[in-house]
Amino acid sequence: MSHLGERHHHDDTWWRRLYDDEGTADLPGAPPDGSLDEHFATVRRAFLGPPVPAPRPSAEVIHVGDRPPTYDAEPTAWPCADPERLDDLLPDTVLDGARYGRLTVRAVSGRGDSARYRGAPRADALLTARFGTGDDALLFLAVAGGTRAADDAPRAAHDACHALGSAVGRNIPRLAEDIRSGQRGALKAGLRRLTARAYGRPHTDGESPVAPHEFVASLRCLLLPLDPDCRTRVFFGLGSGGLFRLRDGQWQDLDPDAEPEDAGTRFRFRASVAQCGDTLLLCSAGLADPLRETPELSEHLARRWGRADEPPGLTAFLADTATRVKGYADDRTAVAVWEG
């Protein structure tokens, strides 16, 4: 850029100073009434071209609320690694997504601010899977939250997701038929049995068995049929967290009441019919709690996710779910489904 261009880029008041120093009577085309605004703009465009626009401010929201969170936004420390159990190491964040017809899915699981600062592993787990092909296929999405203080919580949460995923995958024909035909009683009973078995199945590696029910605080799932003629969305699981629906710009809390079980667990089930324009959100307590208790966060996400024709990309979804709130520093895991 020339010296002249540099002056234009940083400060165009020198043109006005030139007018003031040299006077306006001798300037060709100067307005007789002494008003220089229009003439100034004409001369500047002739010499320099159109003005350089100022950069647009970033739309990124780092936190909501009147105060920033206690911890830094970026990870600080990694967990201590055992050289004999490197398979137990988990990345700070996992991100996934897919699009099937009118369904757009986004999924993320990330360490909370507290765990990042302390160098603790992510205790939440996420599993995304497609079982079957064509219109008979089902999407299975599972979110598990481990007990925060338990050392084996990350592995137990991972194992619980995979155990339940395997059980669901082996029963896809029956589950798909029950969903399509509206057999909610049979569907609920079958999913209750599968969940109870997966939740209580121990993990064994030849040394230390880990029972998921001892270390997993929640295990929540969605089943989404890919049949375009079936709008039924099935939620089931155990423990805390959230199930929300964004419809017409407003959040609806769809979390069903828990039903006591003989083993002390509390099963939750809900089958709902989606509408075009809905956004369904399944999440762990780390996102559900601030979403319920902080209006600024729910309003921010409603603005960001309220248009079904423009679901966010993966990086935008990651940034949205990472919007921080003071007082909430737990892991966050979320699955969102846009109905196009």
What this model shows, in words?
With 340 residues, the chain is α+β, with helices and mostly antiparallel strands. The protein folds into two domains: 3-48, no CATH class; 70-339, Phosphatase 2c, domain 1. Helix content is 33%, strand content 26%. The protein has eleven helices and 14 strands. The protein has a six-stranded antiparallel beta sheet with strand order 2-3-14-12-8-9. α5 runs antiparallel to α7. InterPro entries: PPM-type-like_dom_sf (IPR036457), PPM-type_phosphatase-like_dom (IPR001932).
Number of strands: 14
How much of the polypeptide forms β-strand, as a percent range? 25-35%
Class based on secondary structure composition and strand pairing: alpha+beta
Strand order of the largest sheet: 2-3-14-12-8-9
Write down the CATH class of the largest domain: Alpha Beta
**Computed Rg:** 28 Å
